[in-house]
Structures are given as C-alpha cells and as structure tokens.
C-alpha cells in the first residue's frame, strides 16, 4: 500500500507535458486569500509544472518552487524559466530556517508525510508566517461531471484528492477554510489530458488505461463540454511561534 503510494507520488514526471496541458490553474480570489499582498518570500511546495506558481508572482516578491520530480522540474523550467525551482519535498525543503513568509502547497499536501512535513514547514516559515493548502475539486453537483467521477471510481481508489488540511495542528493556529467556485474553459483533448495526468491513471496497466480513456472519450463526445466546473478548496493556518530549532 505504502509502496504503491510512493510509486504514484513519483509517477507525475512521466506525464509532465500531459499534466501541463490538462490540469487547471487556480482562481485569483483563492490565491489572494492564501497569500497576503505583503508576502515577500513565497514558496510553492510540490509545484509540479508551476500551475499555481505563475499566479503567485508579484512585484517585490521572490517566488521559489520546490518539487521532487525531475520530469516536473524540467517542464517547470520550460514554462517559467525566470522562477527558481529546487529539488526537494515537503519532508525536506532546501531553504534556510525562518526564511519564508508563505508556504503554499497546491494539490500536493496529500502526498507528504505530515509527521515530517509539519516540522519542516515550521522550520522554514518565519513566526507569524502562513501555510496555505489548496485543492481543485471537480464540481460533482454538475451531472456530466458526476458521471465522469463514476467512471474514474471504477479504476481508482479516490477520484478526487484526499484532503489532509486538518492533520497540520500545532504549532500552527486553527485551520481557516474557504471554497471558491469557478469554471475552466476546456476542450475535449484537455479534458482527456486532465484524466490521463492523474497519478493512478499513469500507473495503470496500459490496456486498462486505454479502456478508461475510451469510456471518458465516449462521455465527452456525448456531452461535448466546453467548461470544467471546479470548487477550489482553500485552507490556511498561521504559525504561532518560532521553530524550536531557530
Ligand atoms: C497533483 S501534482 C500538483 C502540482 C502543482 N502544485 C499543481 O497544482 O498543479 C502533485 C505534485 O506533488 C509532488 N509531490 C509528490 N510527493 C511529494 C512530496 N512528498 N513533497 C512535495 N511534493 C510532492 C509531485 O511530484 C507533483 O508534482
């Protein structure tokens, strides 16, 4: 189980270009809620191809990406060549103590081991700094999206990401939560890439993967969607005190 999880966590690099084409960005309102305007050093943890990173940039702000997958970092460097992207993970962030105002983690906190990642976030954040976690969830209140989820559920464990914001705890303050509803304009090809870039789809045996993609193709041909509706779930919490290491 743990091995399968590791395999899936490492799988993204193999489909980094599909990921870049198929995955959504994040709505500006969510980014503004997660990252105070005066934040000077912002780290995007598990940055992938930089889907959130591009929305974090602002004048007088340094944005640093941390990403464990070589393939994702390569894709990142092509898309955002001007942003520093470092090899690292939630469990090992290659930055000094007390050096970060906001640490954000988009669609990736469920891959970290909170027992090691919370102390690491505590170490790099300045006292009073913010940890922001965000997940884009497909809006299953829309009937064709609910049908898509039913197909995905036939092939994988959890179709929407398993959120772990409540596993942060001390020395962070209470978790604040806000949802943001929005729609991403999407073509059939992009909707297929969104499915194909999911970790458990990447790691399926090829015949099973083709079967799944065939069913999704048929659904999309029938419904011809032009938008993918999302609910972006934001969670933020503030570091109460300095790291014991500092
Ligand atoms: C679903 S992608 C999200 C990428 C990007 N943040 C986004 O919003 O599109 C998950 C990312 O988490 C990374 N990841 C996997 N295990 C990780 C860990 N332990 N710490 C940090 N990132 C991790 C993967 O390599 C992948 O790039």
Instruction: Please indicate the count of domains.
Output: 1
Integer-rounded radius of gyration: 18 Å
**What is the CATH domain class?**
Alpha Beta
Termini Cα gap? 36 Å
**Overall CATH architecture:** 3-Layer(aba) Sandwich
Low-confidence stretches: none
Bound molecules: S-adenosylmethionine
| Helix/strand order, N-terminal first | HHHEHEHEEHEHEHHHE
Briefly note the structural class of the backbone.
alpha/beta
How many β-strands, per DSSP?
7
CATH topology descriptor = Rossmann fold
According to CATH, the homologous superfamily is: Vaccinia Virus protein VP39
Biggest β-sheet strands, sense, barrel: 7 strands, mixed
Strand content: 15-25%
Mean pLDDT: 90
- Helix coverage percent of residues? 25-40%
Structural shape: globular
Give the strand order, joined by hyphens, for the main sheet: 3-2-1-4-5-7-6
Q: Helix segment count?
A: 10
Structural overview:
The chain has a seven-stranded mixed sheet. It has ten helices and seven strands. The mean pLDDT is 90. It has one domain: Rossmann fold. The protein starts with a helix and ends in an 8-residue tail after the last strand. The protein has 246 residues and is of the alpha/beta class. It is globular. Helix 5 (70-79) links the parallel strand 2 (62-66) and strand 3 (84-86). S-adenosylmethionine (SAM) is lined by residues 9, 12, 23, 45-48, 51-52, 67-69, 72, 89-91, 106-108, 111-112.
């Amino acid at each position: 189980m743990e091995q399968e999880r590791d395999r899936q966590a490492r799988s993204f690099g193999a489909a980094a270009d599909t990921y870049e084409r198929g995955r959504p960005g994040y709505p500006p309102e969510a980014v503004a809620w997660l990252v105070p305007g005066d934040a000077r050093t912002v780290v995007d943890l598990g940055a992938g191809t930089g889907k959130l990173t591009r929305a974090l940039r602002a004048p007088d702000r340094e944005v640093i990406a941390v990403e464990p997958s070589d393939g994702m970092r390569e894709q990142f460097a092509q898309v955002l060549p001007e942003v520093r992207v470092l090899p690292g993970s939630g469990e090992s962030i290659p930055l000094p103590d007390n050096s970060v105002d906001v640490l954000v983690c988009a669609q990736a906190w469920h891959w970290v081991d909170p027992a090691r990642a919370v102390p690491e976030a505590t170490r790099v954040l300045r006292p009073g700094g913010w940890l922001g976690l965000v997940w884009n969830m497909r809006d299953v209140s829309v009937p064709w999206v609910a049908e898509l989820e039913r197909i995905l559920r036939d092939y994988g464990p959890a179709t929407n990401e398993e959120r772990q914001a409540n596993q942060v705890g001390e020395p962070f303050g209470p978790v604040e939560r806000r949802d943001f509803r929005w729609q991403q304009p999407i073509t059939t090809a992009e909707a297929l890439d969104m499915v194909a870039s999911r970790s458990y789809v990447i790691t399926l045996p090829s015949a099973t993967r083709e079967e799944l993609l065939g069913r999704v193709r048929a659904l999309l041909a029938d419904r011809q969607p032009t938008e993918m509706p999302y609910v972006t779930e934001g969670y933020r919490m503030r570091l109460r005190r300095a790291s014991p290491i500092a």
